[in-house]
Specification:
This protein has one domain (about 5-80). About 70% of the residues lie in helices and about 5% in strands. The protein contains two helices and two strands; from the N terminus they run αββα. It has helices at about 5-35, 50-80, and strands at about 40-45, 45. The protein has a two-stranded antiparallel ribbon. α1 (about 5-35) packs antiparallel against α2. The relative contact order is 0.12.
Length: about 90
Amino acid sequence: MQLTEKQLEYWSKNLRLTGILLFIWFVVTFVIGYYARELSFNFFGWPFAFYMGAQGALIIYVLIIWYYARYMNNLDRVYDVHEGEDE
């Protein structure tokens, strides 16, 4: 089955967004934790590494999910592949 140009463009945008968001997830999860000792400045009165481990990372994960859902809903409408409303 050959994909049309429209389908390839949709898939390309989806993969690009997924790659960017996975990179952000990787940085938040592993890089900040790895450099926790070097990131020893205060953030809202708490050490930054503690804040990121306790709350900051969770907030970023929720924002990643929210942004992906919002972007993909808009992309679905643009490429006319949205599910539509139940009537």
